[in-house]
């Protein structure tokens, strides 16, 4: 029972590089979310999706892009990495009534 | 706007002692309320949730929380803390409007340390 799977677990990027954080869920949830977690700040919503082909911005979308071509996958793209994007990124998918299930996270450092 | 406040950044308790972690929320109606726990280097695990009805909710690992509408609070409690409870705890509020995007608003977290 995999749930929400995120890859990679760790990554170090140089300033200006790009990368895609992968997120896959096997629970057939329509809603999916990307959050970032900074020390002492809780989690902030980056982007979310209500189903395949439909995405929208959250609280902190600048510097990121997403796509949702299938129900299962919701990748997060960083085009020009900046030190301010050093963070831990969590993907989540939602059942009814806001019950969200989280992946294990991707720890990203931009140097 | 919705918001969640966890007043305590870091709490240390002795093993076997009782625990209460505070959470206050700001929301226009009765929200959905959650407590999540995050062990070091791990993702978030749902401890318990409140949607409606009985204001005292039971969760996993012996935790409970009480919803108090008059105080806009949803405090987490445990009668006897175990060393394995050392982790960071997040309170979150979710919209109960059917048309919302359903995301959660998180507090900044409370880190719990347990003394032997």
Mean pLDDT of chain A: 93
Number of helices of chain A: 0
| Mean pLDDT across all amino acids of chain B | 91
Count all strands of chain A and give the number.
Answer: 11
List SSEs of chain B in N-to-C order. Answer: EEEEEEEEEEEE
Structural class of chain B: mainly beta
Number of strands of chain B: 12
Order of helices and strands of chain A: EEEEEEEEEEE
Helix content of chain A: under 10%
Model description:
Chain A is mostly beta strands and 111 residues long. Chain A contains no helices and eleven strands. Chain A has strands at residues 4-7, 10-13, 19-25, 31-37, 43-51, 54-57, 64-66, 76-78, 87-94, 100-102, 106-110. In chain A, the strands form two sheets. In chain A, strands 2, 4, 5, 6, 9, 10 and 11 form a seven-stranded mixed beta sheet that branches. In chain A, strands 1-3-8-7 form a four-stranded antiparallel beta sheet, with no helix packed on it. In chain A, a hairpin with a 5-residue loop joins strand 9 and strand 10. Chain A is globular, with a radius of gyration of 13 Å. In chain A, 35% of the residues are buried. The mean pLDDT of chain A is 93. Chain B has 116 residues and is mostly beta strands. Chain B contains no helices and twelve strands. Chain B has strands at residues 3-5, 10-14, 19-21, 24-26, 32-38, 44-50, 56-58, 64-68, 73-78, 87-94, 104-106, 110-115. In chain B, strand 8 and strand 9 (73-78) form a beta hairpin. Chain B starts with a strand and ends with a strand. The model of chain B has no long low-confidence stretch (mean pLDDT 91).
What topology does this entry show?
The complex is a heterodimer of chains A (111) and B (116).
Chain A: E1 4-7, E2 10-13, E3 19-25, E4 31-37, E5 43-51, E6 54-57, E7 64-66, E8 76-78, E9 87-94, E10 100-102, E11 106-110
Parallel strand pairs in A: 2-11
Antiparallel strand pairs in A: 1-3, 3-8, 4-5, 4-9, 5-6, 7-8, 9-10, 9-11
Chain B: E1 3-5, E2 10-14, E3 19-21, E4 24-26, E5 32-38, E6 44-50, E7 56-58, E8 64-68, E9 73-78, E10 87-94, E11 104-106, E12 110-115
Parallel strand pairs in B: 2-12
Antiparallel strand pairs in B: 1-4, 3-9, 5-6, 5-10, 7-8, 8-9, 10-11, 10-12
